């Protein structure tokens, strides 16, 4: 008897969830928006795979879908550990080319010699520039001895950053520990596709987050917009299973839409561009980053962070719609949190506060570049892990609040 009761409860819940999903995906406006999201994913994939420029040995530039793979193959001539001897060789070659062509390097020379080492040259200039403005000519003033001792220069400048950003002894020790985790010499494998996709995935993620907020806003508000709330709350399971089913529908809808969209963008792009450079350390691009991760790991963190932002967007939209009974108001909140907040943060002088706002979940690319750290008591922590954990908890806490808010309204209706 108990088994059949549990089975009946599951069947009822599944039917309710299916019904709520059907309501979402049968609306003409929602279907149109989902179709647009799919089209945007395909279009952005095309932009991504054609955004790299490869110059062949004849000096002919290519910006075709195959350019990224050919560019990675050319740059992978330097695949392996970027030792002091490797850096010295690249520096000597670059200085010789600059002596021969002080004004402009011909495309043929660029395709044959310079193109393959431009990532490592960028790394060298970044190391020498430190926290100051990037100097593209810094490599031209290096001596062979300085080039071979590049990682000593890097370590000296990390200590300068420790002193600049570490306001307490605990913070300074924390920063030193993070830099000590970074393996030197750096390992190089051309991260062409990963570097490209970090930007495109961030942009597309914001689109999905706002879309999910729009769809989630109607889950609770529809009963009021259709004037069906009296009927809804008079049903047998209106105050318990029905409300839980709506919340579960929001979570399921969020998960399916976000990961389907990101999977489509990623599969198309990486199939065309390849996956070279997954294991390359992020320090190749940002030598003074306090995150000891690879390009591939950063992309995965970006995807996970975007999913957390999507869950937050859905939970906020459901909560506001359940409280205000208006989808129009609920739709505005995720848009303000993830699209308007970054511009407000730039205009107002509350820097630390806006480093921890929800929009930072969709700003992982920039967050990884800056050594933002915070301290509570003796505990020191970094920006990215904190915002990911904090807003996961916030989204989770909102769910029972949504349940209680909508359930209480149902009690009043009765």
What does this structure look like?
- This protein has 414 residues and is mostly helical.
- It contains 17 helices and six strands.
- The protein has helices at 2-26, 28-49, 67-75, 84-100, 107-114, 118-129, 144-148, 150-165, 169-180, 192-225, 229-232, 241-273, 295-324, 327-347, 351-354, 364-367, 383-413, and strands at 54-55, 61-62, 80-81, 187-188, 373-376, 379-382.
- The strands form three sheets. Strands 1-2 form a two-stranded antiparallel ribbon. A two-stranded antiparallel ribbon has the order 3-4. Strands 5-6 form a two-stranded antiparallel ribbon.
- A hairpin with a 5-residue loop joins strand 1 (54-55) and strand 2.
- Helix 8 runs antiparallel to helix 9 (169-180) and helix 10 packs antiparallel against helix 12.
- The radius of gyration is 26 Å and the shape is globular.
- The two termini are 31 Å apart.
- The relative contact order is 0.12.
- Residues 1-8 and 227-234 have low confidence and may be disordered.
């Amino acid at each position: 008897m108990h088994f059949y009761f549990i089975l009946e409860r599951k069947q009822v819940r599944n039917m309710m969830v299916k019904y709520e999903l059907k309501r979402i995906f049968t609306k003409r406006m929602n279907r149109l928006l989902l179709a647009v999201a799919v089209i945007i994913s395909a279009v952005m994939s095309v932009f991504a795979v054609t955004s790299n420029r490869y110059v062949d040995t004849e000096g002919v530039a290519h910006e075709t879908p195959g350019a990224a793979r050919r560019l990675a193959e050319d740059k992978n001539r330097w695949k392996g550990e970027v030792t002091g001897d490797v850096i010295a060789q690249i520096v000597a070659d670059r200085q010789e080319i600059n002596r021969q062509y002080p004004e402009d390097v011909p495309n043929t020379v660029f395709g044959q010699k310079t193109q393959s080492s431009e990532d490592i040259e960028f790394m060298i200039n970044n190391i020498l520039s430190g926290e100051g403005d990037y100097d593209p000519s810094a490599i031209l003033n290096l001596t062979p001895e300085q080039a071979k001792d590049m990682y000593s220069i890097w370590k000296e400048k990390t200590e300068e950053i420790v002193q600049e950003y570490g306001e307490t002894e605990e913070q300074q020790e924390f920063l030193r520990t993070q830099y000590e985790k970074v393996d030197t010499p750096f390992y190089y494998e051309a991260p062409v596709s990963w570097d490209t996709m970090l930007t495109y995935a961030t942009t597309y993620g914001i689109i999905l987050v706002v879309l999910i907020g729009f769809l989630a806003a109607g889950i609770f508000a529809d009963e009021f917009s259709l004037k069906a709330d009296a009927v809804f709350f008079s049903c047998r399971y209106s105050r318990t299973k029905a409300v839980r089913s709506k919340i579960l529908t929001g979570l399921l809808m969020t998960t399916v839409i976000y990961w389907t969209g990101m999977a489509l963008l990623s599969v198309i792009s990486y199939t065309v561009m390849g996956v070279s450079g997954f294991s390359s350390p992020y320090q190749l691009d940002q030598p003074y980053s306090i995150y000891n991760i690879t390009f591939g790991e950063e992309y995965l963190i970006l995807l996970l962070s975007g999913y957390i932002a999507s869950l937050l967007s859905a939970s906020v939209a459901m909560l506001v719609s359940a409280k205000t009974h208006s989808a129009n108001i609920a739709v505005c909140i995720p848009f303000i949190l993830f699209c308007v907040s970054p511009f407000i943060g730039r205009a107002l002088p509350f820097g630390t506060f806006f480093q921890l706002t929800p929009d930072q979940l969709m700003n992982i690319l920039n967050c990884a570049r800056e050594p933002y750290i915070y301290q509570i008591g003796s505990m020191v922590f970094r920006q990215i892990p904190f915002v990911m954990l904090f807003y996961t908890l916030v989204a989770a806490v909102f769910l029972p609040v949504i349940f209680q808010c909508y359930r209480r309204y149902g009690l009043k209706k009765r």
